[in-house]
Amino acid sequence: MDSTQHPQTHALCCCSPLHIYLFIFSTFTLFFLTFYHRAIYELAASQVDLDMPETLWRAYIDFEVSEAELDRARALYGRLLERSGHVKVWIAFALFELEYGGSSSDNGGNSENNSGAEESKSASVSHLEAARAVFNKGYVCACYLL
Question: Cys staple from 106: which of 7, 52, 60, 102, with CB 3.0 to 4.6 Å?
């Protein structure tokens, strides 16, 4: 009998233990690499004397965004602002909020009640409000320092 005559036999052949092992191994490897990258970034960010700290922090934030960990990226901006409070960091954080909007938990909810255009408009308004909140917070911090 040929496997083309019996599709179930062909499906069983595709899920061999080797394929399952490779899938599990690759998933574990990706998880481990993500954990490893975070550990390296954390170690480097904890150093006080760096030649170019802005490059490190930017790479760390970009890494978290690429992993779709927006809340972690927000926390990194918070840590960086505690450390430096530089106006460029406030601007970068506001632009981040403008692009990615409020917290990632705000995305759920009443999306089935809105049409596509209304949902897009409300999302852009929430992104704008989040960016405005960051700018206002930066302004208050700047006024406090003067």
Answer: 102
Per-residue pLDDT tens digits of the chain, which is 146 residues long = 554 555 554 454 556 677 676 677 677 677 778 888 899 989 888 887 777 788 889 999 999 999 999 999 999 999 998 888 888 988 999 899 888 876 554 444 444 455 666 666 677 778 888 888 888 888 887 777 65
* Nearest CA-CA partner of 61 in 85, 82, 42: 42
Q: Which residues contact 35 (CB under 8 A, 6 or more apart)?
A: none
Q: How far is Cα 107 from Cα 76, in angstroms, rounded to an integer? A: 21
pTM above 0.85, yes or no: no
Strand, helix or coil for residue 69? coil
Q: List, in order, residues 6 or more apart from 115 with CB less than 8 Å away.
A: none
